[in-house]
Design a protein that fits this description.
about 450 residues; elongated; alpha/beta; 5-stranded parallel sheet; 9-stranded mixed sheet
């Protein structure tokens, strides 16, 4: 299962996030090191000053280490690779430590907590009460970020997979997407735009009967109500009552066939979309799928025959980006050194670690938790050295600012992912927030830094 969890609602879910109309290819050029005035460069964080590094009296900081812990739904009933977020953090820490660390200190992962899907608050409390850490990363929980209030109240810098509603609000929370705007109150243009691009007119949508999935479906319906007329597209079949883990989708497929559905999307995991694809083939339904959770090379190598012509997305520069971006080269190099699998969640973990290190460098050698948080919240163009489209942390803790919606599209061809709609080295398509019309007609792409 990809890093999108059960939602389409978290930034790759076009129908529940973006409200803008301008489609542009986003440059992934500079990262924070070249874009942030006053940010410490690598030499100032690794070269020991004449008087030595200052003592830092903060939780989780010793003379030679900066300690963190994280929590993920490593054990889960759907086989999701959420625990691979730890691998991405570890690979990034290995890179930084090989360069000499930060202010004479190595970055150390103290413990990898497993919330087993439903025990997030328990594991967060263990981190706060027992681990003695400076920051919390990664957080990768797919359904219940129930420990969020504890971390927010403790004002601990927290970095993670920003798919849950709880990432919105606290100034010490840095999810990889910024704040979310979810459900029917946030119609987005992206999926209607894609429907128009592919000349598809009748959409079928399936979701589980849990909030993170059903909210996604509500957002899709709202999006097509607002933008569907211009795209000559509409939702003709929707079901958000499916039980989590359902395998029998014969009734839903029969109803979609009867409704002449030509484009299918779900707010489901990869097990769900595979069951759906198999049933569609069984009933001779030729519609393609839009797979917000489908960026999984191993899964697609095995099952790609069921998804020929379908569309997959990421919110980070995908591995297939050409020419390959320097940040991707670093990620691949250090993941290979560790021998860990390269997954969506490991990329998110890498991004979380980069965001954390960015805050440490900006805070300076007399860093504190609060300085890290405060400095990051002055950062208006954070992009993880090009892996993300730019985030504005001065605004994107609140959904009232409508976080940017930027997506890399890929088409499944012969069980591989083929980038679509972007330009060389610039994989993202984005929507701004100037919602002045219900039209889905795109203006010519524009480069932006």
């Amino acid at each position: 299962m990809g890093s999108h969890g059960l939602k389409q609602r978290s930034g790759q879910r076009f129908a529940a996030l973006a409200t803008g109309l301008v489609v542009l290819a986003v440059s992934l050029g500079g990262g924070y090191r070249g874009a942030v005035a006053g940010a410490a460069d690598n030499s100032t964080t690794t070269t020991k000053p004449a008087g030595g590094w200052p003592k830092v009296d903060q939780p989780g900081v010793t003379g030679d280490t900066i300690r963190v812990s994280g929590v993920a739904s490593t054990t889960n009933p759907i086989g999701g690779l959420y625990g691979s977020s730890f691998d991405g953090v570890a690979a990034y820490f290995n890179m930084i430590n090989a360069e000499g660390g930060i202010y004479g200190r190595k970055l150390v992962m103290v413990k990898k907590h497993d919330d087993q899907l439903g025990q997030n608050q328990r594991e967060v409390e263990a981190i706060i009460d027992q681990d003695n850490v400076f920051a919390v990363l990664p957080v990768a929980t797919i359904a219940f970020f129930s420990g969020a209030k504890k971390l927010a109240d403790a004002k601990i810098p927290t970095f993670g997979w920003g798919i849950n509603d709880e990432w919105t609000g606290p100034p010490n929370f840095f999810g990889h997407l910024g704040a979310l705007c979810n459900g029917s109150e946030c119609p987005g243009i992206g999926l209607p735009w894609l429907s128009k691009k592919l000349n598809k007119h009748k959409l079928g949508v399936l979701a589980y009967n849990v909030p993170s999935s059903s909210d996604c479906l509500d957002g899709i319906q709202s999006s097509f109500k607002k933008y569907g007329k211009s795209a000559n597209a509409k939702v003709v079949y929707a079901n958000k009552t499916l039980s989590f883990g359902v395998t029998d989708l014969s009734s839903d497929v029969k109803k979609m066939v009867d409704a002449k559905v030509d484009f299918v999307t779900t707010c489901m995991d990869t097990n769900g979309v595979l069951s759906l694809a198999k049933e569609m083939r069984q009933q001779g339904m030729t519609a393609i799928q839009y797979l917000p959770n489908g960026y999984d090379q191993a899964f697609m190598r095995k099952n790609g025959g069921f998804f020929q012509g379908s569309y997959v997305i990421t919110q980070f520069a995908p591995f297939e980006t050409t020419p390959q971006l320097p940040a991707l080269k670093q990620y691949l190099k250090w993941m290979n050194k560790s021998g860990a699998a390269k997954t969506e969640n490991s990329v998110i973990g890498w991004v979380n670690a980069d965001n954390f290190v960015t805050g440490l460098r900006m805070a300076g050698p007399n860093f504190t938790r609060q300085k890290v948080v405060d400095q990051l919240n002055t950062l208006t163009t954070y992009d993880a050295d090009g892996l993300l489209a730019p985030l504005n942390w001065a605004k994107q803790h609140t959904d009232k600012h409508y976080p940017r919606s930027c997506t890399a599209f890929m088409e499944v061809k012969n069980s591989k992912f083929v980038p679509k709609f972007g330009k060389p080295g610039k994989p993202f398509t984005c929507w701004g927030n100037t919602d002045s019309t219900n039209s889905v007609t795109a203006v010519p792409p524009t480069n932006r830094r």
